[in-house]
Amino acid sequence: MILVWLKFIVCTVIIFFSGKRVAKYGDIIAEKTGLGGLWIGLVLVAVATSLPEIFTGVGSILFVGAPDLTVGNLFGANTYNLLNLVLLDFLYRGGPLLSAISAGQLLTAVLSLIPLLIAITGIFLYKFFPISFANISIFSFLILIIYLTSVRIIFQFEQGQQKILKELKKEEKEILKYEHISFKKASIFYGLSAAVIVGAGIWLSYIGRDLAEILRLNQNFIGSLFLGFATTLPEITVSVAALRLGAKELAVANMFGSNLFNIVIIFLNDALYQKAPIFTAISQQHIFTGFVVILMTSIVCVGLILKPKKKTRLGLSNYAIGLITVFILGAYINFISGNR
Prior knowledge:
Blueprint (H helix, E strand, L loop, with lengths): L1 H32 L3 H13 L1 H14 L2 H25 L12 H22 L6 E2 L2 E2 H22 L2 H14 L7 H33 L3 H13 L1 H12 L3 H25 L13 H21 L11 H21 L2
Antiparallel strand pairs: 1-2
Helix pairs in contact: 1-2, 1-8, 1-10, 2-11, 3-4, 3-8, 3-9, 3-11, 4-9, 4-10, 4-11, 4-12, 4-13, 5-6, 5-11, 5-12, 6-11, 8-9, 9-13, 10-11, 12-13
């Protein structure tokens, strides 16, 4: 048992440092290619820091044959991304963090719920509507379509927000100063760091299976709690670094962008799962975790709309305390229901 936990710790450390480097060199590539600051957070960095979720899923599907692990990991990672906003709020000294960011973040938060709702619906209703193409569920196709549509909507929205764009450009000038690093060097190191995460992600899927067997816990709980924590380390590492550099938009956009992208990974996993459409093999218990994500996202949306002016004596905003409460209750109920 000690050996398995040691493997988990080592794998977590590898993901932590490799994810940080992937995000850094992805940042450099974005600068060299002229991508905007918001796109660094929403698309490039979000996808880069979601590599652990992608390849943990690939490992769970192809090598372990445990689709519950990968879906639990994705839903669990989304709860951790939202919980990470608590840490960002605590570290931000200018007042409540959500009161200091742009309206575009609210749009992204709302859009991140749509593919999640489709995934929950697929888990609940697929046995009644077993429609698939090329052994891929219709719900997976809908998730992919909504993701691509959401990215386009966000891009169009940001184009019309000149004030936001100017602010992001100012943040870019402070953060993205990589004149001393060539595009070729950045691409090579990005690829190498990503390769390390690929290996660690596949290894993590085996570790998750072993933890489930040793602790006698179901794969949904292991995926949601342990794998979800490990695979979100790159997101929080990047966002904390961005916040310290003054790029609050990038810090928050990375979290919302990751949540939006994580669900589309279900489409990839469905394509790789050859036995049947993946929704036939997913536990109904994931629906509860999905609703925890919805509730936490709703709390964030309320914070973005109301924009509180002060923090509590704990150094946290009221919405941050709400996120902590929902996360803890969700994890507890998930644990109890998974071991009945």
